[in-house]
Amino acid sequence: MTKAKAGIDKNLQNVVGDLEQTGVNSHHAQQIQQDTNDRRHQDALNHDKTEDRDPSHS
User: Fold this and answer.
1) Residue 18 CB contacts under 8 Å (≥ 6 apart), including other chains
2) Rounded to an integer, what distance in angstroms lies between the CA atom of residue 14 and that of residue 48?
3) Using one digit for the tens of pLDDT, what is the confidence trace for 13-52?
4) How many degrees, rounded to 5, is the angle at CA 18 between CA 17 and CA 22?
């Protein structure tokens, strides 16, 4: 992880870092995109606050 510099948005700093990576070929570019998708999916799972409303599972 990169440390945010004072006054710089960490999210934007990470985006810039991702954009600086150049895929050497289409396979490598797809792997980079899949890493991004995996992080987004995991983040969505981590923030899912839905509860099981079916009391039969208790």
Assistant:
1) 32, 36
2) 23
3) 777 777 777 767 888 889 989 999 999 999 888 887 777 6
4) 110
